[in-house]
Amino acid sequence: MSNLLDRNLIFLHSSPSNFTEALTEIGNVMIAKGYANNDYVEGLLKREEEFATGIPVEAAGVAIPHTDASFVKDNKIGLMIPKHPINFGIMGGDGEEVAVQLIILLGFADSQNHLSALQKVIESIQDPSFIEKLVSVESADEAYSCLEEYLTINLEEEIK
Q: Would you say residue 160 has pLDDT above 70?
């Protein structure tokens, strides 16, 4: 069982109409579970508006929203696979957008672990089999297993 994953932070077939609704939905669960402080959603949204996190990869658009470690109490990774793609700004872009099918939320309580997690996620999303497997999951348990297999097992070794 992963320390970085919580099945309550896996959202399949949600219907947010934009990134604000998506991040609010995930972020509010982070707060409710005690993994983040009450300003977490505001921090996520502000960060996303200032420094977009959408990444077009071969298999699908992916967003990796995150915010300052000061908003986070416990390291967690969340996942949302919305029913319909949601537009996110492209990371490092100039206002361009990408239709995102996977939202991989990073919540880390210190900047070094945050950076390690971000690097690991970016590395993982370059593997088309990881993306294709995540996009096709039919349950939170399948998503949890996929994240654990491709992402968190090695990451947890790095951040001990």
A: no
Over the stretch 32-79, which tens digit does the pLDDT of each residue have?
A: 999 999 999 999 999 999 999 999 998 899 999 999 999 999 999 999
Predicted TM-score (pTM) of this structure = 0.94
Q: Residues 88, 11, 3, 107: is their CA dihedral positive or negative?
A: positive
Q: Beta-carbon neighbour count of residue 146 at 10 Å?
A: 16
Which residue, 146, 140, 131, 148, is CA-closest to 13?
Answer: 140
How far, in Å, CA of 134 to CA of 27, rounded? 20
The CA angle 143-135-28, to the nearest 5 degrees, is 60
End-to-end CA distance of the chain: 15
Tokens, residue 100: 């995102």
List of E strands, the chain: 5-12, 54-56, 61-63, 76-81, 86-89, 97-107
Question: Encoding tokens for residue 151?
Answer: 């992402």
**pLDDT (tens digit per residue) in 7-22:** 999 999 899 999 999 9
Distance CA 51, CA 45 (A): 10
